[in-house]
Amino acid sequence: MASSRSVDPAELRAAISAVSSWLRGEGPDPARSELAAAVRLSLRTLAADAPGRSVEVRVPPFAAVQCVEGPRHTRGTPPNVVETDARTWLELATGLLDWTTAVESARVSASGSRADLAYWLPVVRL
């Protein structure tokens, strides 16, 4: 679920900047704490941009948020789930990868009629 705190754009940009060379395939793997910060802040930004509880977006092991307006999910497995790894999520969040390509190449698992984040991505540009 989205945090009640708003995301500081400068904090988000700093977190993304810390992993940007790795995302572009030009640098070493980031520290786990840097990767976690970039994932969490970008997911919180998505949740703030697309408020709601009809879609659960999961990026294990770092974070999950509920977003997108629609029927609220409260118990059990949500009917609309998006799940991916940290690198794929950050490529989507920064516009380095488009939604359709990610889904068609099975880098993203998206189930449910509302599990389409194309409209909301990217959340920040590199």
Layout: helices, strands, pairs:
Blueprint: H1 9-23, H2 32-49, E1 55-59, E2 63-67, E3 81-84, H3 86-94, H4 99-104, E4 108-111
Parallel strand pairs: 1-3
Antiparallel strand pairs: 1-2, 3-4
Helix pairs in contact: 1-2, 2-3
Distance from N terminus to C terminus (CA atoms, Å) equals 25 Å
Q: What is the approximate shape?
A: globular
User: Average pLDDT, to the nearest integer?
Assistant: 92
By CATH, the topology is Nonspecific Lipid-transfer Protein, Chain A
Architecture (CATH level 2) name: 2-Layer Sandwich
Tally of strands: 4
Q: Which percent range fits the helix content?
A: 25-40%
Major beta sheet, strand line-up: 2-1-3-4
What is the makeup of the main sheet? 4 strands, mixed
What would your notes on this structure say?
With 126 residues, the chain is of the alpha+beta class. The protein has 4 helices and 4 strands. The chain has helices spanning 9-23, 32-49, 86-94, 99-104, and strands spanning 55-59, 63-67, 81-84, 108-111. The chain has a 4-stranded mixed sheet. The longest helix is centred in the first third of the chain and has 18 residues, at 32-49. The protein is globular. The chain starts with 8 loop residues before the first helix and ends in a 15-residue tail after the last strand.
